[in-house]
Specification:
Blueprint (H helix, E strand, L loop, with lengths): L10 H10 L8 E4 L3 H12 L7 E4 L11 H16 L10 H29 L11
Parallel strand pairs: 1-2
């Protein structure tokens, strides 16, 4: 966050700390995002013998949202784009952006609806497999 006149919160303390450190160096951190990002971060740490990091930041969805559907809804478009990139789906002349937009539209409509219906069915059946549930 930049303050008026180019000042940042805590900037003076951080600048003084860096100036006092001998020899001055930059912190090296590795960050990994949701899904394959956390897996990749672990593989980099394991295989990167010549790499050193001061810290690792793993980013993921956390929470117990009512219904538990949203983590699936928000990650589906990214998974679809990754599948396009790795040629795991039929591209059918579509670019990555088009696949992503189609996945967003699907996730926000039919997919979330199916997830909600499946959860309701599991509740009605006492947690049994939803195979016996019909729309």
């Amino acid at each position: 966050m930049v303050q008026p006149h180019g000042r940042r919160p805590g900037g003076q303390v951080g600048d003084r700390r860096l100036a006092e450190s001998q020899p001055p160096r930059k912190l090296a951190t590795l960050s990994g995002g949701e899904s394959y990002g956390t897996t990749r971060a672990g593989l980099i740490l394991k295989a990167g013998d010549d790499l050193t990091f001061d810290g690792v930041l793993l980013i993921g969805l956390v929470g117990d949202a009512p219904g538990h559907e949203m983590p699936y809804v928000v990650t589906l478009p990214t998974m679809a784009a990754a599948a396009w990139y790795h040629q795991r789906i039929d591209r059918a002349g579509r670019g990555a952006e088009q696949v992503y937009r189609e996945a967003v539209a699907f996730a926000r409509t039919d997919y979330v609806s199916a997830l909600i219906k499946a959860r309701a069915c599991r509740r009605r059946s006492g947690g049994a497999s939803p195979n016996g549930c019909r729309p």
